[in-house]
Amino acid sequence: MNQTDDSPITLYEGPVESMLNSHLGLLPATTRLYGRVWTGGPQVVIRYYEAHPPDGDPIAFCAVARLARGQLKKKPESKPGMAILEFSSAGVYIVNSFR
């Protein structure tokens, strides 16, 4: 959330808060997404586990952030425990709801 419209952005391993720029299924724009970032490999993995719509109760779900070809490649200058990404936005794909 604190790097909206920045380029490049720096992500650190651990919890993440993001916001939808447009609707995602029944979730409206400005819904907050909460999840976790992993930076250990050549690509960043961002998985979301909860959505907080602006006028509703939290919703448990499973989604991932992706760019072209399903990738979030780190820039070469990224250090251990963090990742530098070219863009501050990515697509969010719902994987499955929690059961």
Characterize the structure shown.
The protein is mostly beta strands and 99 residues long. Helix content is 0%, strand content 43%. It has no helices and seven strands. Strands 2-3-4-5-7 form a five-stranded antiparallel sheet, with no helix packed on it. The chain has a two-stranded antiparallel sheet with strand order 1-6.
Please provide a brief summary of the model:
With 99 residues, the chain is mainly beta.
Number of strands: 7
What level of helicity do the residues show?
under 10%
**How large, in whole angstroms, is the Cα Rg?**
13 Å
Quickly count the helices. 0
Strands side by side in the biggest sheet: 2-3-4-5-7
Question: Major beta sheet, specifics?
Answer: 5 strands, antiparallel
How much of the sequence is in beta strands?
Answer: 35-45%
Low-confidence stretches: none
**How would you sum up the global shape?**
elongated
Distance between the termini: 28 Å
- Assign the structural class, choosing from mainly alpha, mainly beta, alpha/beta, alpha+beta, or little secondary structure: mainly beta
Question: Whole-number average pLDDT?
Answer: 83
Say what oligomer this is. Answer: single chain
Order of helices and strands: EEEEEEE
